[in-house]
């Protein structure tokens, strides 16, 4: 399996752990304002990163490219900043909104880069 797939899977499982911890926190405290952050951590962090990992496992030639590694780092950076800033914003800190917006655009650029890889790179 390509190392890039392993990076995606390892990062995905860390996001799953974070998502479960946030879900447990919300359940214990009965404070559900940050449900959107919980959903983003699980869907963009756990599910989407695992799908990226599967794709690269099935396409090792593409996984070996520099652009694929760049896609990993851009997407991961976006989620790493977006998730906690979204949590803080939804928990009552509106000053986080610009950081959420910027990190969302970084995350989206990682998705667009994956789309570019998917549609233009030969296996």
Itemize the secondary structure elements and their pairings.
Elements: H1 3-29, H2 35-58, H3 60-63, H4 66-90, H5 97-120
Helix pairs in contact: 1-2, 1-4, 2-4, 4-5
Number of domains: 1
Cα separation of the termini: 15 Å
Put simply, the count of helices is: 5
Average the pLDDT over all residues and give the rounded result: 96
Report low-confidence residues grouped into runs of 5 or more.
none
Task: From the alpha carbons, calculate the radius of gyration and give it in angstroms.
Answer: 15 Å
Name the structural class: mainly alpha
What is the gist of this entry?
By secondary structure, the chain is mainly α.
Structural commentary:
This protein is mostly helical. The protein has one domain (3-120). It contains five helices and no strands. It has helices spanning 3-29, 35-58, 60-63, 66-90, 97-120. Helix 2 packs antiparallel against helix 4 and helix 4 packs antiparallel against helix 5. The radius of gyration is 15 Å and the shape is globular. The protein starts with a helix and ends with a helix. The mean pLDDT is 96.
């Amino acid at each position: 399996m390509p190392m890039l797939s392993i990076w995606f899977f390892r990062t995905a499982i860390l996001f799953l752990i974070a998502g479960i911890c946030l879900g447990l926190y919300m359940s214990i405290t009965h404070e559900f304002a940050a449900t959107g952050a919980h959903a983003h951590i699980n869907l963009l962090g756990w599910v989407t990163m695992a799908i990226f990992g599967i794709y690269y496992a099935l396409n090792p030639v593409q996984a070996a490219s520099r652009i694929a590694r760049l896609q990993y780092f851009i997407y991961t950076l976006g989620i790493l900043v977006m998730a906690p800033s979204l949590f803080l914003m939804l928990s009552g800190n509106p000053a986080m909104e610009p950081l959420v917006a910027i990190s969302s655009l970084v995350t989206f650029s990682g998705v667009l880069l994956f789309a570019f890889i998917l549609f233009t790179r030969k296996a």
